[in-house]
Structures are given as C-alpha cells and as structure tokens.
Specification:
Number of strands: 0
Number of helices: 12
Structural class: mainly alpha
Order of helices and strands: HHHHHHHHHHHH
Strand content: under 5%
C-alpha cells in the first residue's frame, strides 16, 4: 500500500517493516480482488487483511475515526514524517506535548521526543523544543551516545534560535568533537555560522 500519498518512496523508507510485510500481501490481495478470486482473498489471515486496510486508511485519511480514537496514530505519523524530514507534516501530526510518551519505555520515548523537538526547531519554536528535551530521562540506560549527541546539538540549536550563541557553542563544541557522525557534522557546521 502507499503509506504516504505525497511520496510513496518516503513512506516505504519510513516504515520498512510495514512495507516488507504488508506491501506484497496488499498487492496479492489487490490482484485477487481484480480477478474476482474470492478463494485467494479468504486465504489471507483476517488480521493481515484488516491491518493492511486500516493502516492504508489511517495514512490516507488522517481525519478518520481511527486517528481520532487513537492519538498514538498521529504520534507515529509524525515520527514517520520527521524521519523523512517533512517537518511541517511532523509538527501537524505530533501531539502538542510529549505527555503521551510517558507510557512508553525510554528506548521508544527518547527518539520520539528528539524528533518532536527537532521538528519544533525546524519551525522556529525553540521554547517548545527545550520543554520536550528537558523531559528526557538523562539517566536512562536507553540513552545511547547518539541520543546524547542529538540532545546536546538540539539544545544548542534552541539557544542559537533564542539569540544566545555563547550557550549554543558550549553545547556544540563537544558534539563536534564526538564520535556520532551525524551530529558531529551538524554541530561542526553550526559552529561555522
């Protein structure tokens, strides 16, 4: 199924597990429907048929009842949009606070919060980003070095957007000297501004 009507390729990259399982099944189901082969259609597990249809509907029609009943759907749509650098779509999809993430374990909540903060920063909302980053459990075992680098870089970006370049530089310098390639590069480039 096409997960993102605007850009199917981006949707597949954002949901590789979904694509790998549901796309071939969806194509087979569609072929069977087109041929009128009810035996083949009924041979697919009902849950798989339903999951494919429900997720298709959710991604194509965000105003549907599924999305309204389950705020987590918007959270994951926002995550997919942020992962493909569609910042406006991510911002529209993410909840306005990360309170919903309190029910998630840190290994899921931390990357989601980082994407929520980055989305806010891309839209010029440093105060929102800082609030989100402040909630992250910095003592968590799930806080990998890559997440620490991301958090420090994003905090620096928030300070930069607030007109506090000295504070931003103190956060970016260690990240620029760090081992995480993505944030090493981002922080190094930020220091040249």
């Amino acid at each position: 199924p096409r997960l993102n009507p605007e850009s199917p390729a981006r949707g597949r990259r954002a949901f590789p597990r979904f694509s790998g399982v549901f796309e071939p099944c969806s194509r087979s189901l569609q072929r069977a429907k087109n041929l009128g082969d009810e035996k083949k259609i009924s041979g697919y597990p009902a849950g798989l048929r339903k999951s494919s249809d429900v997720l298709n509907h959710a991604f194509q029609n965000r105003s549907g009842s599924l999305v309204q009943q389950h705020p987590e759907v918007n959270l994951w749509i926002g995550y997919a949009a942020a992962a493909t650098e569609q910042w406006r779509k991510a911002d529209r999809s993410f909840p306005k606070s990360n309170r919903l993430l309190l029910q998630y374990p840190d290994n899921i909540a931390i990357p989601l919060t980082i994407y929520m903060a980055e989305s806010a920063l891309h839209l010029g909302q440093p105060a929102t980003a800082k609030k989100m980053l402040d909630i992250i459990n910095m003592g968590s075992e799930a806080l990998d070095p890559q997440y620490r680098a991301a958090i420090d870089y994003l905090r620096g970006e928030a300070f930069s957007q607030e007109g506090k370049p000295a504070l931003a530089i103190t956060l970016w310098e260690p990240v620029a000297k760090g081992l995480d390639r993505l944030y090493h590069t981002k922080a190094s480039l930020a220091l040249t501004r």
